[in-house]
Specification:
single chain; 199 residues; alpha/beta; two-stranded antiparallel sheet
Length: 199
């Protein structure tokens, strides 16, 4: 069975959705550790309440490479073979990415390659796009640029605010992250160049 490690920095709503899907049998995998760089992350408490191993590895004041090595060591200690980022507000070093090649998934609240980085929903509204959404992708050494596993679209309404658009996108995030993790956990895909071919 695929062993999942979750990295989060905050409330962990995507972690909650993943954990619910694992418990319900929609994902053929198990969560073996949840790691946060912040002791006050609500996701850690949520993980403990579910009986999951929850670990805080504070990042403040640490060199990025040194910190990432400690996270990789913790993931390896638990035998993790698929890393899922769930609101982990740190850029991973190349060394981290190379430790889990094509085994790190992230979800981003835009239709990549549009609007990478922070405040994607604000970027979408500012640009006046009519459709936005979310993307599950493999993490590579570039920001929000790895091969795309799944995407979902959400209409952008004239009256939308960052909050209202974010809320609608989040519903789709929870849905497609589960689907993408199941695809990767069961090996029902292949990567050709930048394309992830399913089935």
């Amino acid at each position: 069975m695929t062993k999942i490690g979750i990295l989060l920095s905050g409330r962990g709503s995507n972690f909650e959705a993943i954990a619910e899907s694992v418990a319900a049998g929609r994902i053929d995998a198990g969560i073996v550790v949840v790691i946060s760089n912040r002791a006050d992350a609500a996701g850690l408490e949520s993980a403990r309440a579910r009986g999951l191993k929850a670990v805080c590895l504070p990042s403040k004041g640490l060199d990025r490479a040194v910190y990432d090595r400690s996270v990789v060591a913790e993931l390896r200690k638990h035998g993790v073979d698929l890393v899922c980022l769930a609101g982990f507000l740190r850029l991973l070093t190349g060394e981290f990415v190379r430790a889990f090649p094509e085994r790190i998934l992230n979800i981003h609240p835009s239709l990549l390659p549009a609007f990478p980085g922070l405040d994607a929903q604000h970027q979408a509204l500012t640009h006046g796009v009519k459709v936005s959404g979310c993307t599950v992708h493999f993490v590579d050494e570039q920001l929000d640029a790895g091969p795309i596993v799944l995407q979902a679209t959400v209409p952008v309404l004239d009256e939308d605010t960052v909050e209202s658009l974010s809320a609608r996108i989040l519903v789709e995030e929870h849905r497609i992250y589960t689907e993408a993790i199941q695809v990767v956990a069961t090996g029902k895909y292949r990567i050709e160049g930048r394309r992830v071919l399913l089935g």
